[in-house]
Amino acid sequence: MQKALWTPSPEQVAATQMDAFRRYINQAHQLQLSDYTQLHAWSVAHRVAFWLAIVEFFAIKFSQPASEVLTENSAMPSASWYSQTKLNFAEHLLRRRDAYPALISIGEDGSREVLSYQDLAAHVAGLQKSLIEAGVGYGDRVAAMMPNTWQTVVGALATASLGAIWSSCSPDFGMQGVTDRFGQIEPKVLIACAAYRYAGKTLQLAEKIKEIVARLPSVEQLIIVPYAHAEAQAASFKAGNARVTLWHDFYQAAGEPEFVPTDFAHPLYIMYSSGTTGVPKCLVHGAGGTLLQHVKELGLHTDLTAADTLCYYTTCGWMMWNWMVSGLALGASIVLYDGSPFHPKADRLIDLIDQEGISIFGTSAKYLAALEKADSKPMNTHSLDKLKAILSTGSPLSHESFEYVYRDIKQNLCLSSISGGTDIISCFSLGNPALPVWSGELQCKGLGMAVEVWNDAGQPVIGEKGELVCTRHFTAMPVSFWNDPAGEKLKAAYFSQYPGIWAQGDYAEETIHGGIIIHGRSDAVLNPGGVRIGTAEIYRQVEKLPEILESIAIGQDWDNDVRVVLFVRLREGIKLTEALQNSICQVIRSNTTPRHIPAKIIQVSDIPRTISGKIVELAVRNVIHGRPVKNTDALANPEALEEFRNRAELAY
């Protein structure tokens, strides 16, 4: 019988904000909800009361009491939240104003800068004033091509304080990738770094920035942050008609910020789809929905408090950056790390956990798998005494990685695999410090989220694979797609499969524990002989083998059917021998079904992935079928695709 990898003690449960919230609901509504299952069911059945409770529990400040919490005229996406009141997102992230560390910004080169909550407010106030003088107002866009550093957070908060709209990407995006995104939203201001560091190298950006500004005629003000290039001069970045100013010349940190009240659904952030199938879609997320969803997930599901230090290894082009920044609303310290997680050694981020007393550490499933492959055993080399939770997302976390964390990192912590995405700038399913951790499972559905798994007949199922859906409106739905006034693109993206029901595009399974297993993306599901196979099921088995660093599986059209083709990246110096191929097939056969065994196994030197680290199965599938990949600039390593093109092995 399966045993939980970790179970919180009754004392640990009672000390969580999740359990405090359950008790709060019981008292406020004269209920006797005894566990999370009952609390979740209540939160979905009574969404208005639930979201009002979130507002009260986390002291969300509105311009006036909410008279209409939820208006639903028809099925999703036609609904509105808190339409009769206003708030400001940045105001809630800047409520704390003491000398406590707000942002701890650490570079790959070891540089370290700390901004207290007092400092942060002063920087936001100064930048806000200068943005106003630069002509930025309500609804204008401020874009950033920046590393994960304190200036980026200040830029986002100053923008939000004005009711303007923030959008960011990381500096490793290609020029076309940047202009494909920012060109659609026409920013008035662009903030960019002069250079950035990665894996021991410094990459200069002057020429790229000039070309980007030349392609963005809407930019009136370019602000250059001399990051990784202290000698940067404004004149070196002059392009087009945009004014160019260095960051420290543009404003002075002083005064108190003011906060422009915005509608609940007023655009806060513009995020982007991966863009691997065409020009990226621009997802617009509202101020109120983002705030409520984030404080719920950070405060309850992650148990983040004002005494905690949070670090999520991310870039500013991934929604986890926006999610992490919202930790300021809980009064926590946020560690911003910029650079390679493995430079100069595999334990770089593990060192950081000890050095900064990080209590909640977030990363990708790929990172944890790579750490295990590097034979890192932090339990033997680090204290990790403050660490109470590890979060993982980006791709399904394998059973082996679950077991690795508890075997080699730390036994007494909550390992939370979480899943949602840019689509909702938050999670459908995620962690819970008051619940056990089961290998391979996301612990629970998010509060207020009517998440189900549906079979092909559109019926909810447990213990069977199917489509992950959300059957009721929730606050963190995107308020729109940019330049989609009739909402047709939004409906096509999420509501075409089941009208009125959000279909996330994940191939998933609900477990008897109330948890969720993600088996891969629905559009990447393999279908040999009409049997649906999630790619994550194959990766989990293949990547057990020590010779294999990572793999990617696609379905190739073959003989009026589909056959599974597996590409593997091996450790340096290892070749794909017949014996290794047999081992791969054996481990798959022993742990899955004969249908999962690939018809072809092919060695490659690299596997293409997006800049946020997700492997791109659809792009590889298109390449091997001779179809174009429309936007390779969305990839971190587009050159890797060429290795999949015209492979002779695929012709027989």
From TrEMBL:
Organism: Iodobacter ciconiae
Record's signal peptide: none
InterPro entries attached to this UniProt entry: Acac_CoA_synth, ACAS_N, AMP-bd_C_sf, AMP-binding_CS, AMP-dep_synth/lig_dom, ANL_N_sf
Domain called AMP-dependent synthetase/ligase: residue spans: 96-473
Annotated family: Belongs to the ATP-dependent AMP-binding enzyme family.
Name of the molecule in the record: Acetoacetate--CoA ligase
E.C. numbers: 6.2.1.16
Keyword vocabulary terms for this entry: ATP-binding, Ligase, Nucleotide-binding
GO-annotated biological processes: lipid metabolic process
One Pfam family matching this protein: AMP-binding
Residue span, Acetyl-coenzyme A synthetase N-terminal domain: 36-91
CDD domains: AACS
GO molecular function annotations of the record: acetoacetate-CoA ligase activity; ATP binding
